Amino acid sequence: MVSIIPLSHRESEILRLLCRNKGEVVDNKDVLLQLWGDDSYFNTRSLHVFITKLRRKLSRDPRIRIINVRGIGYKLI
Fold this sequence. Notes:
A three-stranded antiparallel sheet has the order 1-3-2. The two termini are 22 Å apart. A hairpin with a 3-residue loop joins strand 2 (66-69) and strand 3. By secondary structure, it is an alpha+beta fold. The radius of gyration is 12 Å and the shape is globular. The model has no long low-confidence stretch (mean pLDDT 95). The chain is built from three helices and three strands. Helix 1 packs across helix 3.
């Protein structure tokens, strides 16, 4: 059975970026500049919060994971 999980606009933008680069590391700075327009500390914290929310929503499917690449960014596998 397929379940539909609603995403916020920002969550969907982040997930779209990760999907476009599936299996590759997406640099934090690139995400921040593309979606927020700058890479300030506060936007970095927001990105982490959105990633946490996405992980929680995607956790129902064990085949999908967003992993941290410490000091660089995120990777969708």
